[in-house]
Iron-sulfur cluster carrier protein
Amino acid sequence: RGGQAEREVPFAQPNSLTRVYCVASGKGGVGKSSVTVNLAAAMAADGLNVGVVDADIYGHSVPRMLGAEGRPTQVEDMIMPPSAHGVKVISIGMFTPGNAPVVWRGPMLHRALQQFLADVYWGDLDVLLLDLPPGTGDIAISVAQLIPNAEILVVTTPQQAAAEVAERAGSIAVQTHQKIVGVVENMSGLPCPHCDEMVDVFGTGGGQRVAEGLSRTTGTNVPVLGAIPIDVRLREGGDEGKPVVLTDPDSPAGAAIRSVAGKL
Ligand code: ADP
Protein backbone atom coordinates (compact mmCIF):
# COMPACT_ATOMS: atom_id res chain seq x y z
CA ARG A 1 0.00 0.00 0.00
CA GLY A 2 2.82 2.25 -0.97
CA GLY A 3 2.13 5.90 -0.42
CA GLN A 4 -1.36 5.35 0.91
CA ALA A 5 -2.44 6.02 4.45
CA GLU A 6 -2.40 2.97 6.63
CA ARG A 7 -5.79 1.35 7.05
CA GLU A 8 -7.02 1.06 10.62
CA VAL A 9 -6.80 -2.27 12.37
CA PRO A 10 -10.44 -3.32 12.85
CA PHE A 11 -9.66 -5.37 15.98
CA ALA A 12 -8.19 -2.31 17.65
CA GLN A 13 -11.47 -0.40 17.58
CA PRO A 14 -13.01 0.03 21.03
CA ASN A 15 -16.29 -1.50 19.85
CA SER A 16 -14.62 -4.57 18.28
CA LEU A 17 -16.26 -7.82 19.35
CA THR A 18 -13.29 -9.96 18.27
CA ARG A 19 -11.34 -11.57 21.08
CA VAL A 20 -7.64 -11.49 20.23
CA TYR A 21 -5.14 -13.86 21.81
CA CYS A 22 -1.38 -13.78 21.29
CA VAL A 23 0.11 -17.21 21.78
CA ALA A 24 3.59 -16.75 23.22
CA SER A 25 6.39 -18.92 24.57
CA GLY A 26 9.81 -18.40 26.06
CA LYS A 27 11.55 -20.63 23.55
CA GLY A 28 10.90 -22.60 20.37
CA GLY A 29 9.77 -26.20 20.15
CA VAL A 30 7.40 -26.18 23.11
CA GLY A 31 4.35 -26.69 20.89
CA LYS A 32 3.17 -23.11 20.59
CA SER A 33 2.09 -23.51 16.96
CA SER A 34 0.49 -26.90 17.59
CA VAL A 35 -1.54 -25.41 20.42
CA THR A 36 -2.53 -22.37 18.31
CA VAL A 37 -3.69 -24.50 15.39
CA ASN A 38 -5.64 -26.94 17.54
CA LEU A 39 -7.29 -24.18 19.57
CA ALA A 40 -8.32 -22.49 16.32
CA ALA A 41 -9.70 -25.71 14.83
CA ALA A 42 -11.55 -26.57 18.05
CA MET A 43 -13.17 -23.14 18.21
CA ALA A 44 -14.14 -23.22 14.52
CA ALA A 45 -15.68 -26.68 15.06
CA ASP A 46 -17.75 -25.07 17.82
CA GLY A 47 -19.18 -22.67 15.27
CA LEU A 48 -17.01 -19.62 15.93
CA ASN A 49 -15.48 -17.51 13.17
CA VAL A 50 -11.77 -17.91 13.71
CA GLY A 51 -8.66 -16.41 12.14
CA VAL A 52 -4.99 -17.13 12.72
CA VAL A 53 -2.06 -14.83 12.03
CA ASP A 54 1.16 -16.81 11.82
CA ALA A 55 3.77 -14.25 12.84
CA ASP A 56 6.40 -16.79 13.84
CA ILE A 57 9.25 -15.59 11.64
CA TYR A 58 11.41 -18.57 12.58
CA GLY A 59 8.90 -21.34 12.08
CA HIS A 60 5.79 -20.25 10.18
CA SER A 61 4.42 -23.78 10.38
CA VAL A 62 0.76 -22.87 10.92
CA PRO A 63 -0.48 -23.31 7.30
CA ARG A 64 1.01 -26.80 7.06
CA MET A 65 -0.30 -27.85 10.46
CA LEU A 66 -3.74 -26.59 9.52
CA GLY A 67 -3.67 -28.05 6.01
CA ALA A 68 -4.20 -24.58 4.53
CA GLU A 69 -2.20 -25.05 1.35
CA GLY A 70 -3.92 -22.29 -0.66
CA ARG A 71 -2.28 -19.00 -1.47
CA PRO A 72 -3.67 -15.64 -0.49
CA THR A 73 -5.38 -13.84 -3.37
CA GLN A 74 -5.95 -10.18 -3.92
CA VAL A 75 -9.39 -8.68 -4.44
CA GLU A 76 -9.22 -4.96 -5.12
CA ASP A 77 -6.87 -3.78 -2.40
CA MET A 78 -7.64 -6.48 0.16
CA ILE A 79 -5.82 -9.77 0.72
CA MET A 80 -8.12 -12.81 0.85
CA PRO A 81 -6.66 -15.38 3.25
CA PRO A 82 -6.80 -19.11 2.48
CA SER A 83 -8.71 -21.22 4.96
CA ALA A 84 -8.91 -24.80 6.18
CA HIS A 85 -11.25 -26.49 8.64
CA GLY A 86 -13.16 -23.21 8.82
CA VAL A 87 -10.11 -21.26 10.00
CA LYS A 88 -8.79 -18.32 7.98
CA VAL A 89 -5.02 -18.13 8.04
CA ILE A 90 -2.37 -15.72 6.92
CA SER A 91 1.29 -16.50 7.40
CA ILE A 92 4.50 -14.60 7.09
CA GLY A 93 5.71 -17.65 5.13
CA MET A 94 3.18 -16.87 2.36
CA PHE A 95 5.07 -13.67 1.58
CA THR A 96 8.67 -14.85 1.65
CA PRO A 97 9.57 -15.77 -1.96
CA GLY A 98 10.49 -19.44 -2.27
CA ASN A 99 10.41 -19.64 1.51
CA ALA A 100 13.85 -18.02 1.50
CA PRO A 101 15.12 -17.21 4.95
CA VAL A 102 14.52 -13.55 5.63
CA VAL A 103 16.03 -11.49 8.37
CA TRP A 104 13.04 -9.72 9.83
CA ARG A 105 13.96 -6.57 11.64
CA GLY A 106 11.61 -4.93 14.10
CA PRO A 107 10.17 -2.20 11.83
CA MET A 108 9.65 -4.63 8.92
CA LEU A 109 7.86 -7.03 11.16
CA HIS A 110 5.69 -4.28 12.56
CA ARG A 111 4.74 -3.27 9.03
CA ALA A 112 3.97 -6.88 8.02
CA LEU A 113 1.84 -7.32 11.10
CA GLN A 114 0.00 -4.07 10.45
CA GLN A 115 -0.82 -5.35 6.95
CA PHE A 116 -1.91 -8.77 8.17
CA LEU A 117 -4.30 -7.11 10.59
CA ALA A 118 -5.61 -4.26 8.47
CA ASP A 119 -5.33 -5.33 4.80
CA VAL A 120 -6.48 -8.94 5.11
CA TYR A 121 -10.17 -9.53 4.63
CA TRP A 122 -11.04 -11.35 7.87
CA GLY A 123 -14.78 -10.71 7.94
CA ASP A 124 -16.50 -10.70 11.33
CA LEU A 125 -14.23 -12.78 13.51
CA ASP A 126 -15.20 -14.05 16.95
CA VAL A 127 -11.61 -14.96 17.73
CA LEU A 128 -8.23 -14.07 16.26
CA LEU A 129 -5.16 -16.02 17.37
CA LEU A 130 -1.65 -14.76 16.73
CA ASP A 131 1.21 -17.23 16.73
CA LEU A 132 4.13 -15.11 17.91
CA PRO A 133 7.82 -15.93 17.51
CA PRO A 134 9.34 -17.55 20.60
CA GLY A 135 10.87 -15.24 23.16
CA THR A 136 9.67 -11.86 24.20
CA GLY A 137 10.85 -9.40 21.60
CA ASP A 138 9.82 -6.42 19.51
CA ILE A 139 6.83 -8.21 18.14
CA ALA A 140 5.07 -8.37 21.50
CA ILE A 141 5.37 -4.60 21.71
CA SER A 142 4.16 -4.23 18.10
CA VAL A 143 1.10 -6.33 18.80
CA ALA A 144 0.34 -4.29 21.90
CA GLN A 145 0.55 -1.09 19.85
CA LEU A 146 -1.57 -2.45 17.01
CA ILE A 147 -4.17 -4.24 19.16
CA PRO A 148 -4.07 -2.85 22.70
CA ASN A 149 -6.79 -5.18 23.95
CA ALA A 150 -5.07 -8.38 22.77
CA GLU A 151 -4.59 -10.88 25.59
CA ILE A 152 -1.61 -13.18 26.00
CA LEU A 153 -1.69 -16.95 26.28
CA VAL A 154 1.61 -18.48 27.40
CA VAL A 155 2.64 -21.99 26.33
CA THR A 156 5.34 -23.77 28.30
CA THR A 157 6.60 -27.28 28.94
CA PRO A 158 6.71 -28.81 32.42
CA GLN A 159 10.46 -28.32 32.36
CA GLN A 160 10.94 -24.73 31.47
CA ALA A 161 13.12 -22.39 33.50
CA ALA A 162 9.93 -20.90 34.75
CA ALA A 163 11.01 -17.84 36.64
CA GLU A 164 12.95 -16.38 33.74
CA VAL A 165 10.26 -16.74 31.08
CA ALA A 166 7.57 -15.60 33.46
CA GLU A 167 9.46 -12.57 34.50
CA ARG A 168 10.19 -11.40 30.96
CA ALA A 169 6.73 -12.09 29.55
CA GLY A 170 5.18 -10.63 32.68
CA SER A 171 7.15 -7.40 32.66
CA ILE A 172 6.32 -6.81 28.98
CA ALA A 173 2.63 -7.38 29.73
CA VAL A 174 2.82 -4.92 32.61
CA GLN A 175 4.54 -2.38 30.35
CA THR A 176 1.95 -2.76 27.60
CA HIS A 177 -1.03 -3.08 29.98
CA GLN A 178 -1.98 -6.40 28.42
CA LYS A 179 -3.80 -9.14 30.22
CA ILE A 180 -2.23 -12.60 30.46
CA VAL A 181 -5.23 -14.87 30.09
CA GLY A 182 -3.42 -17.98 31.30
CA VAL A 183 -0.77 -20.63 30.87
CA VAL A 184 -1.03 -23.87 28.90
CA GLU A 185 1.41 -26.61 29.84
CA ASN A 186 2.27 -28.76 26.80
CA MET A 187 4.12 -32.08 26.64
CA SER A 188 2.86 -32.77 30.15
CA GLY A 189 3.91 -36.38 30.40
CA LEU A 190 3.50 -39.36 28.12
CA PRO A 191 0.70 -41.79 28.93
CA CYS A 192 2.41 -45.21 28.73
CA PRO A 193 0.83 -47.21 25.90
CA HIS A 194 1.32 -50.45 27.87
CA CYS A 195 0.11 -49.51 31.34
CA ASP A 196 -1.77 -46.53 32.72
CA GLU A 197 1.30 -44.92 34.18
CA MET A 198 2.33 -41.41 33.17
CA VAL A 199 5.98 -40.96 32.15
CA ASP A 200 7.06 -37.43 33.06
CA VAL A 201 9.45 -37.02 30.14
CA PHE A 202 9.96 -33.30 30.74
CA GLY A 203 9.46 -33.24 34.51
CA THR A 204 6.49 -31.65 36.21
CA GLY A 205 5.22 -28.35 37.50
CA GLY A 206 6.46 -25.93 34.80
CA GLY A 207 3.00 -24.64 33.98
CA GLN A 208 2.22 -24.00 37.62
CA ARG A 209 5.57 -22.28 38.21
CA VAL A 210 5.17 -20.04 35.16
CA ALA A 211 1.62 -19.14 36.23
CA GLU A 212 2.77 -18.29 39.75
CA GLY A 213 5.67 -16.20 38.42
CA LEU A 214 3.34 -14.34 36.05
CA SER A 215 0.83 -13.76 38.82
CA ARG A 216 3.58 -12.26 40.94
CA THR A 217 5.04 -10.00 38.22
CA THR A 218 1.68 -8.78 36.97
CA GLY A 219 -0.08 -8.60 40.33
CA THR A 220 -3.04 -10.46 38.81
CA ASN A 221 -4.24 -14.04 39.05
CA VAL A 222 -2.85 -15.93 36.05
CA PRO A 223 -4.34 -19.45 35.94
CA VAL A 224 -3.07 -22.68 34.37
CA LEU A 225 -5.76 -23.32 31.75
CA GLY A 226 -4.77 -26.90 30.99
CA ALA A 227 -2.10 -29.54 30.54
CA ILE A 228 -1.68 -31.32 27.21
CA PRO A 229 0.05 -34.70 27.28
CA ILE A 230 2.56 -35.91 24.71
CA ASP A 231 0.49 -37.65 22.07
CA VAL A 232 1.65 -39.18 18.79
CA ARG A 233 -1.72 -38.30 17.25
CA LEU A 234 -1.11 -34.61 17.90
CA ARG A 235 2.24 -34.73 16.12
CA GLU A 236 0.84 -36.78 13.21
CA GLY A 237 -2.11 -34.42 12.91
CA GLY A 238 0.33 -31.51 12.63
CA ASP A 239 2.37 -33.24 9.95
CA GLU A 240 -0.76 -34.12 7.95
CA GLY A 241 -2.61 -30.83 8.30
CA LYS A 242 -5.42 -32.54 10.22
CA PRO A 243 -5.61 -31.16 13.76
CA VAL A 244 -6.07 -33.85 16.40
CA VAL A 245 -8.99 -31.96 17.97
CA LEU A 246 -10.90 -32.80 14.76
CA THR A 247 -9.61 -36.27 13.89
CA ASP A 248 -9.51 -37.60 17.44
CA PRO A 249 -11.29 -35.11 19.71
CA ASP A 250 -11.45 -37.52 22.65
CA SER A 251 -7.78 -38.51 22.58
CA PRO A 252 -5.93 -37.23 25.68
CA ALA A 253 -4.33 -34.32 23.79
CA GLY A 254 -7.47 -33.57 21.78
CA ALA A 255 -9.66 -33.45 24.88
CA ALA A 256 -7.14 -31.32 26.78
CA ILE A 257 -6.95 -28.72 24.02
CA ARG A 258 -10.73 -28.63 23.56
CA SER A 259 -11.03 -27.96 27.28
CA VAL A 260 -8.63 -25.01 27.03
CA ALA A 261 -10.55 -23.69 23.99
CA GLY A 262 -13.72 -23.75 26.09
CA LYS A 263 -12.10 -21.43 28.64
CA LEU A 264 -11.08 -18.73 26.14
P1 ADP B 1 6.72 -24.33 18.56
O1 ADP B 1 5.63 -23.65 17.78
O2 ADP B 1 6.70 -23.98 20.02
O3 ADP B 1 8.08 -24.19 17.97
P2 ADP B 1 5.60 -26.80 17.48
O4 ADP B 1 4.14 -26.63 17.67
O5 ADP B 1 6.15 -26.56 16.13
O6 ADP B 1 6.40 -25.90 18.56
O7 ADP B 1 5.99 -28.25 18.03
C1 ADP B 1 7.28 -28.78 17.90
C2 ADP B 1 7.18 -30.26 17.55
O8 ADP B 1 6.65 -30.98 18.66
C3 ADP B 1 6.25 -30.54 16.39
O9 ADP B 1 6.77 -31.59 15.62
C4 ADP B 1 4.95 -30.98 17.04
O10 ADP B 1 4.21 -31.88 16.24
C5 ADP B 1 5.46 -31.67 18.30
N1 ADP B 1 4.53 -31.56 19.42
C6 ADP B 1 4.08 -30.44 20.02
N2 ADP B 1 3.28 -30.73 21.06
C7 ADP B 1 3.19 -32.08 21.13
C8 ADP B 1 2.49 -33.02 21.99
N3 ADP B 1 1.71 -32.61 22.99
N4 ADP B 1 2.65 -34.35 21.73
C9 ADP B 1 3.43 -34.77 20.70
N5 ADP B 1 4.11 -33.96 19.88
C10 ADP B 1 4.00 -32.63 20.08
User: Anything to note?
Assistant: Residues 25, 28-34, 59, 61, 186-187, 228, 230-231, 234-235, 238, 253 surround adenosine-5'-diphosphate (CB under 6 Å). The first strand starts at residue 19 and ends at 25.
